[in-house]
Amino acid sequence: MISVVLCVYNEENNIKECLESLKNQSYKDFELIIVNDGSTDRSMKMVKKYEKEFRMRIINTEHIGLRKARYLGVSEAEGDIIITIDADETFDKNFIKNLIKNFENEKTGIVGGYIQNYEKNWIAKGMNSLRELFYSNRDWISGGCMAFKREFRNLLSTEKIGADVDLSWKVKKMGYEILVEKRALVYHKDPQSISGIIK
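The structure corresponding to this sequence follows.
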């Protein structure tokens, strides 16, 4: 089984699209762990409308921030492979299928999805080009779209700002491969203005 961990903090503008894309996955054998990180908007009302669509567990906490909320969800995961995602993302229908296929190789430690901008304007195209360059020169995977073996979950930090980088490097030092799966497409809602990108 696969565990998908999704942290939610005031995501009422994004959560429906995210959950719809998870509902439409071709790979169905996963549990969905929702960590409610102290949301004060309508996010969780929207989440609860999907409870019957998934093998879902909801963990409620006061607002503790993304790193600690993600660790909380990961620590409760029961799957052999754990996938962490963000609420402002949507996913190709074969996202999970293509992501976890890489773990057929026992030397695979962490796999990242291939993140693209949600929009199609010139800013989105520029961001996608920068990501393409970025992907080809890095040796770590973003926690916003990361799959890893359950045995590594205790290596995930709650304190370090670059917890995803830290985990990637720890796993790589153990002799495992770190890779991005270009067929596991993820669409991220990046800022759509120059000022938003700078911010």
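Residues 121-125, 190-199 have pLDDT under 50 and may be disordered.
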